[in-house]
Specification:
alpha/beta; 8 strands; binds pyridoxal-5'-phosphate; globular; eight-stranded parallel beta sheet
Length: about 260
């Protein structure tokens, strides 16, 4: 995978899912995050490392938890529901939902996750609002943006950003916290990271009153994965989503 010298390459990782190797890889990724922060003149506490545990067994999450990790990311609603139940004895674990959320599965997610990173269409946004409001909770959300207009990726286009911003800020039950991106797989991701960071700043300025009314501000930039988290941190990422560099290769999808 692409990545700077500080990123952990998949090729050098053993496919061993033991607790020990997870703890070792986690320590290496934490060190690389700290190094990227130092290089960018940022405090390490300004970046939340999310361990992306999709397709990994609950035991792998317990291993990372035992090594002191608390923030975990899941992409599939049913898988999240099952792991959330299996790990209910870990009270201070923080869940992040980072995948596309189908309407009929929102009931498993809303109110159960610290942050939903991937609001990606109006139908989903409507349903999320309805459910959060009905539960009487405030769900923190990010808007996923498809800056490169890739047909293979979800997220709102640049042209639609203002419309999504208006709807997000008029949605009771939701608190809009920032933006998320999955940049194109090919090429240097840094220009996309910079562009998302610029959008965050612009939207924060143009919408600061409405954000204030929602008791929010756009302080979250969710970008960067195993191959490019250092570049994302250089561009201002506040949340990096790292899977394989921590857990090793994902087991094949079951069902
Ligand atoms: C799987 C996934 C990741 C983690 O990818 P790795 O390359 O394994 O680090 C990050 N973000 C999203 C949205 C994902 O689906």
């Amino acid at each position: 995978p692409p990545g700077g010298p500080s990123s952990t390459s998949q090729a050098s990782m053993p496919a061993d899912p033991s607790a020990e190797s997870i703890a070792q890889r986690l320590a290496a990724v934490r060190a690389a995050v700290a190094q990227a922060c130092a290089k960018a003149d940022r405090s390490p506490s300004s970046v939340t490392l999310i361990a992306v545990s999709k397709h990994q067994p609950a035991a792998a999450i317990r291993a990372a938890y035992a090594a002191g990790h608390r923030d975990f990311g899941e992409s599939y609603a049913k898988e999240f529901r099952d792991k959330h139940a299996a790990l209910a004895d870990l009270p201070d674990i923080r869940w992040h939902f980072i995948g596309h959320l189908q309407r009929n599965k929102m009931k498993w997610i809303v109110g159960q996750v610290q942050l939903h990173h991937a609001v990606d269409d109006m139908i989903g946004l409507d349903e999320l609002t309805r459910r959060s409001y009905a539960l009487g909770i405030t769900q923190d959300v990010l808007l996923q943006v498809n800056l490169a207009n890739e047909p293979s990726k979800r997220g709102c286009t640049e042209a639609d950003l203002p419309v999504f911003a208006d709807v997000l800020l008029r949605s009771p039950g939701l608190r809009w916290r920032g933006l998320m991106i999955l940049p194109p797989n090919e090429g240097d991701p840094s220009p996309w990271f910079d562009r998302l960071a610029a959008w965050r700043e612009r939207l924060q300025q143009t919408h600061h009153r409405a954000l204030q009314a929602q008791k929010s501000s756009l302080d979250v930039l969710s970008m960067g994965m195993s191959g490019d988290f250092a570049a994302a941190i250089a561009a201002g990422a506040t949340h990096v989503r790292v899977g394989t560099a921590i857990f090793g290769p994902r087991p094949p999808k079951s069902a």
